Each structure stands twice: as structure tokens, then as C-alpha cells.
Amino acid sequence: MSRLAACLAAGLVAVAAAGPAAAQTAHDHAGGAMADVSILAASFAPAHVDVVAGDTVHWANAGVLRHTVTADDGSFGSAQLFGGDGYERRFTAPGTIAYHCTVHPTMRGEIDVRGVLLDAPHGPGAPSAPYLLRGRSSLPAGSPVTIERDDGAGFAPVAATTVAAGGGFTAPVRAARTAQFRAAIAGGEASPPVRLLIVDRHVSASAQASVVRARVTPASPGATVVLQLRQRRHFGWWPSRRARLDRHSRVRFTAPVTRPTRARVVLTLRDGATILARSAVVTVGPARR
Amino acid sequence: MAAAAPSASAATRTYWVAATAAPHWNVVPNERDAIMGTRYQPADTVFPTVVYRRYTAHWRHTLPNMPRGSSNQNLIPGPLLRARVGDRIVVRFKNLDTLLRHPHSMHFHGVHYKPSSDGAYLPGFSGGDADVKPGRTWTYRLRAGRDSAGVWPYHDHSPSMDESLMGGMYGMLSIRGRHERAPDREFVVVFAPMGQFQTIDGRAFVGNTPVFTSRVGQRVQWDVMAIGSEHHTFHVHGHRWRGADGVPRDTQTVGPAESFKISWREEDPGTWLYHCHVESHMMAGMIGIYQVRR
After folding, report:
1. Can the peptide bond before residue A286 be classed as cis, meaning omega within 30 degrees of 0?
2. Rounded Cα–Cα distance for residues B272 and A17 (Å)
3. Furthest-apart CA pair in chain A: how many Å?
4. A235 and B24 in contact by Cβ < 8 A?
5. Is residue A27 predicted with pLDDT exceeding 50?
6. I need a surface site. Which of A98, A219, B210, B219 has the fewest CB within 10 A?
């Protein structure tokens, strides 16, 4: 498996974990952020949630079955939650709290309450280019936070920042290749690591009538590429065809167009949606008879 | 292939259908709500799910799921299963769910069948029809009676129904009367929630939801249904139709597992909106465009 393929596979785990009902969104909430957990037919999604002390977790029963949210240690418990019902609780003390559903005891979940968290990077970065990492802490404004990077030889400090009013912090970092980052605070506590995917691929594309040929360098055979068309009825770039690069790292698409249309080829994760690199825009048109 | 019997005499129509993985379903492929100018990241819009897809005989090859006149879309609802009143419908179903490895089934509204073709899980009562394990098959034998004319839902009713419905395991039956003419265009509109989005056919916001197309003079038919726990109000701009009471209308309510069809002869060229008029649903994605050419 090529290094890119390995990175793509690793990146996909995060994408695949973000199911529709598993959308774990953090948004403003009085006295901390709010994390959402969906209660499905037979599971909590996501089953593991990291929060910063002071955050609130909101559980929503997205199904039709009856469930509960009950701490294993008895420290909290919801009433019976029917379809559409919700329950929320604010967590202030650091630690790991396991919970379950009393109606379906095999349904289990875990809340990890921490002093500091780093947000997962929203997209891949370029080699050695600045990339802004974001995070949150329960420490007061002005408290120092150290950003650490692991290139494979263990975590070492690479940046320092401070907690802003409201608990957020940002730090520009650089990495020559894909690396793990974490945030550390006084007392030796560190956030769970996040992976910053670094992509150095280049996509070149050319068009002849309705045929678009593209090549990705350095060679990435087997990687997913998508032909995107700029179409008014789709209000932007629209994925028209999807393919894998051949063993020479090349691909050939035939665009389904009836008039001259702007097109580009993008290299993506296996989801066909998360863009790692894009070609210049070319124009495709119907084949001449 | 199913017998697309042109004659009005009763036929047996066989459909090969499977529950199959859609590992990277994207609810918002253009990454935007173009009307409100909001951007979405693939990390928030792509997820793995399981859907119904039509196959050639013995589930050898999957067939395209792109009905004519709905743009270049491979949408969430399973194949539109067509028949005429009087027909026998044989649905050969296979569970090819390699993603979640859940049991699945098919349960059909509006048609006649024996309990062994009900597809609804009831411990101690239901059989293999309702709990088709991964890799296993079942044959559902249905009959379109005189009271079956219209459009109807089908959906998973197995032990995994709750999760399957949220993921998109549904589709429609379209049954015409013995002498009813087929429309030139038949559009499937399924209102259903998907995570944080309110979707039409598994897509949210204009350009992502199906771009339906027709031409002036064509007879167009809209097959509308709702899945989930909420009511929706189907509205098409610039067009009117007559309700069952004969009164003209341009908005019609549909509740969970309800369905209706409406049709008209097209005479209004242009690009039109169609959407659910429950405002919060429309804002969360239940809106699309319909293009009529001269």
C-alpha cells in the first residue's frame, strides 16, 4: 500500500465515522459548548465523546424505540426517552464517565471530560505551509497551551499559545509530512492527538472534445479521482464521474456534456468528496462529428 | 429485466432487488446551500449507508438508478417498481449488506399479498420474509388489485427498520390502471430526514436534490411520499393540479408513509422551484428545481 493510500485509508476512518445521525457538532452554549449524541435503534452515536470540562452533552432519541441514558456509577440518569425526546447534562469534573441504556444494556457509551481538546483539522494541508489548528480549554483566559507534534519519534513542542476569553485557542503549525498534533496544559494533561494530513500531490488535466485526461504526480495508482463539471443547474462544481487512477497514475473521463462546459479533475479521499488536490480548469465540449 | 408489457392484459413482472452498501453517500455534493450561501464540508455530509438497488437476473449486475428526467443523479430511493392493475409482481430480494451486516426486508404498501410476503418483523409470528440475513434471499409475491392503482411506499420492516429508514432503505411502487396511459415523465419525490438535513431523495439544497426536467406538451407525473416522523407539504411553483375533491391546489400535505401522485400536461416553460413548504424543512434542504424546456 502506497503512503498516500495508507493516509487516505486512515483519513477515511474519520469520514466514515461521521454518520448522519452521528454528527457530533460543537456549538455555543451558555457556560461551554454543546456536544450532540444520537440515540439510534441499538447504539449511541458517537459512542465515545470528548468534551471540555464545562461542556454540555445533549442526547436525542432519533429512533422510535424507548431508551435511557444512565451513568454506570449512578451519578446521573435520564427518564425514559421516547422517539424525539432529548436529555442533556453538563459535565464539570474531568474524568471518564461510562453510561448505558437500562432498556438495552448492550447499548453503551462514554464521555471523556478533559481540560483541553484540539479540533480535528477540517481538510488536508500542504507540505511545510502554515496550518491553523484550533482547540478549547477549561482553563482561564491567558493560560498557556503548548502544541506538540509527533513525526514518528514521539511528541515534541512546536508552538505555544494562550487560552482566549471563551476558552478557545488557535496556533499556526507546519508539517513537512502527515503528523499527529496534541495540545498540552499545565499539570501534564494533553489532549487526544489529531492527525493533520499533508498532501503534496499535483493534478494536471487536458481536454479534447468531451474527453478529459489527467495525471497525478507523484504517482498515486489506485487513488480516487473525480471529474467535476461547473453546471448552473447544480449551482457549483458537480461530481460527474468517479474513477481510480490506473497503474501509471492516469485517468481518462468522457464528460456527459452537450455544450462547452468548464471541467476539472480532483484527487479525493475514497469518499470521492474530500478534495486533496485539484487540476486547473479545462473546457470540455461535445465530440465533433 | 421486468416484463414491460405494453398490452393491457395482466402480466407477471419480476424485479431483482438487493440491499446494497452505499459506503460514501453525499447529501450535499456541491458543498453548499446556494440560496442561503452556506458552505458544507464533506466531513459533515458524507456517510456510509445501505440502499435498495435493482439488478439484472440473479443479482448479476446492478442496474443504473437514474430515472429519465431527473438529471444525472443516482439517488437514495430504490428502484421505482412499475405495474398495472391485475399484474402479479415478483420481487426477488437479496441482502447484500456488507457494510452494516444487518438483517433487511421489503414491506410493500398498497398491494395484495400473503403474510409470508409482508416483510414485517414480529417475533414468534413472522418468518424468513421479515428477517433476511446478509447473503440470504427472499421472494415477495404481490398482486396489484383494482384498489392498488396509485403510488405506494416500500421499505425495510426488518429488525433493523429504525436505522435502515434513517439511512434510506425505501422506494416506491407505481401502479397504473388497466387502461391508464403512462406519463412522459415520472418524478419520484421522497421527503425524509437524514441526520441534520431534511432531504428529497437523500439530497439537500438546490442543485443536489434532483433537477427534474420536461418539455412543454409532455404529461408529467409526480410520485410523492414521506418517510420518518414528520408531515410535509409538497409545493411546485407556477403549477396547479386538482385534488381528490376536484379543487385546484398548488400545495399538498403528505404524512409518514403516505403517498400521492399528481399530474398535468406541461405548458409553463422555465426554471421552477419545488419544495416542502414546512419552513424549517425547506431551510434544512427540502428544496429543488424543475426545468421545463419549450
Report:
1. no
2. 37
3. 76
4. no
5. no
6. A98
